[in-house]
Specification:
elongated; 2 domains; mainly alpha
Length: 179
C-alpha cells in the first residue's frame, strides 16, 4: 500500500513528463486535475503556468493563458514564500514578453530567496546586455559563471560586452585600467 500522498507525487511526475515530452495539452489537463484536487500544490501551479505559456504561439500580456499563468505563479509564491522558483518563472515569462525591467525585479526577488541562482543571475546578465548596460552585464555574467561554470557556452555575448565596455581591444586583449 503506498504511503499517503505518494500517488499525488506520481500523478504530478506523470503530468510533468507529458510537458517534457512536448505533450503540452495533455500536461495542462493533468495539471488542472491535480490543482482541482489540491489547490495548494505549488509545483503543479508552477508547471501549469509554464505549460500555459508554452502552448501560446505568440504570448502576450493580455492573453487569457498569460493572465492565468501569472495568477498561478502568484498563488505558488503565496503557498511557498521562501521559494525562488515562482519568481524565477515570472522573470522568464516577463522577459519573453519583452518586459525586461519587470523581469529584472522578479529575478531579484528569486535571488532574495536563494542567492545561489545561477540561471536567474545569467538572465539578469543577458537582460543588462540587451539594455546595453555593458559593465553590469559583465559583472553579473562573472557571478553566474562562478556559481555555474557550465553556463559559459551560453554566454558568447560576454566578449562583445567587454569590448563595448572598453575592457577588450579589437584583438580581444584585456585592456588594463589604471586606478
Amino acid at each position: 500500500m503506498p504511503i499517503l500522498g505518494r500517488s499525488k507525487d506520481a500523478e504530478y511526475r506523470d503530468a510533468a513528463r507529458l510537458l517534457n515530452e512536448g505533450r503540452v495539452q495533455g500536461a495542462i489537463e493533468a495539471l488542472r486535475r491535480i490543482i482541482e484536487k489540491n489547490p495548494n500544490h505549488s509545483n503543479a501551479c508552477i508547471t501549469l503556468a509554464v505549460a500555459l505559456m508554452e502552448i501560446q504561439a505568440k504570448p502576450s500580456r493580455e492573453s487569457p493563458e498569460t493572465i492565468e499563468a501569472f495568477a498561478l505563479l502568484d498563488t505558488a509564491a503565496e503557498l511557498n514564500p521562501k521559494s525562488p522558483i515562482p519568481h524565477f518563472n515570472m522573470g522568464v515569462m516577463l522577459r519573453n514578453l519583452g518586459l525586461r525591467e519587470e523581469a529584472l525585479v522578479c529575478f531579484e526577488k528569486a535571488l532574495e530567496r536563494e542567492e545561489r541562482q545561477p540561471l536567474a543571475i545569467a538572465n539578469m546578465a543577458e537582460i543588462n546586455y540587451e539594455l546595453e548596460r555593458w559593465e553590469e552585464s559583465i559583472r553579473l555574467a562573472r557571478l553566474a559563471l562562478i556559481r555555474d561554470p557550465g553556463l559559459e557556452s551560453a554566454m558568447g555575448w560576454v566578449r562583445v560586452a567587454m569590448r563595448k565596455a572598453g575592457m577588450l581591444d579589437h584583438d580581444g586583449n584585456v585592456i588594463s585600467r589604471s586606478e
